[in-house]
């Protein structure tokens, strides 16, 4: 009589073939799509419109969620046209809230931010990763704080403000929030609610595009910093916003304690380059050669040609996209440095091709 070969000869192989966790996930998913033994899945319990281009997604995660600290971000994976795509979003809620929330502003050409704003509805399931990031308070919270927020950079700052509110903070806080217009203020009602509950908070909205009577207008300048924070040397500053605002803030705040969180895609962080011709990129694992212009990040140029390497934050934070460059030279988009020609690991979301390359992809 014939025996079942896997069970009899190779029990380990048989178990591998069975993939017990996959089966468990399958059956649990049938009971409730949020259930899983391996993945942090979260049900969308509400979608709130913040502005014309920004929504807050309220999420109830499953038992694998380990919590977060105010100011941290979380990887969110969605499936778009059969492809799983991950992006990082700051949590705008407080760790003690019964549900999590992310607040997502549509980015021009942003695949996931547009998908979330257009398609995500109550009852949907999103997959999350673990929270991370060091845009958080140290153990001892400073007595004098200045938050500089630009656009959707308000999201982690909103969570930090809620943290101060819940910890009965007694210091002094100024929030300078730069947005295009009054209508673009994100999380406005919640910010105003925090302000009305505490004595220590001053919120100053600054409109860059559409001035409004009774409000500040323009961009970040030394004058506005000093107007609202005459004592900058003894203030701890938290900056979160687009790269030009961050660069400006760092140059104006020399000698001041600053913690910053970048909030833009890398291609928007560097000056645009126009290049003549293309260079070859040989992908050594898939034995493919493609031509790229070296005008954008390698990740973007690969994706434009239908090649989708693993990626997460797309801004040089999470290291999901790291791959080995075997030969060739790249530019680091975060600082403009051009690499040597030899072998090294690179983050393809924040590097662009300078010469022909061989990548272990
Ligand atoms: S995708 Fe996160 S570092 Fe590149």
Automatic annotation (TrEMBL):
Pfam families hit by this protein: FAD_binding_6 (PF00970), Fer2 (PF00111), NAD_binding_1 (PF00175)
Gene Ontology molecular function: iron-sulfur cluster binding; oxidoreductase activity
InterPro entries: 2Fe-2S_ferredoxin-like_sf (IPR036010), 2Fe-2S_ferredoxin-type (IPR001041), Beta-grasp_dom_sf (IPR012675), Cbr1-like_FAD-bd_dom (IPR008333), FAD-bd_FR_type (IPR017927), Flavoprot_Pyr_Nucl_cyt_Rdtase (IPR001709), FNR_nucleotide-bd (IPR039261), MRET (IPR050415)
Matching SUPFAM superfamilies: 2Fe-2S ferredoxin-like, Ferredoxin reductase-like, C-terminal NADP-linked domain, Riboflavin synthase domain-like
Domain 2Fe-2S ferredoxin-type span(s) in chain numbering: 279-361
Gene3D superfamilies found in the cross-reference section: 3.10.20.30, Nucleotide-binding domain of ferredoxin-NADP reductase (FNR) module, Translation factors
PROSITE patterns tied to this protein: 2FE2S_FER_2 (PS51085), FAD_FR (PS51384)
Residues annotated as domain FAD-binding FR-type: 37-138
Top-level taxon in the UniProt lineage: Bacteria
Alphabetical list of PANTHER family matching this protein: NADH OXIDOREDUCTASE HCR, OXIDOREDUCTASE-RELATED
Record-given protein name: Iron-sulfur cluster-binding domain-containing protein
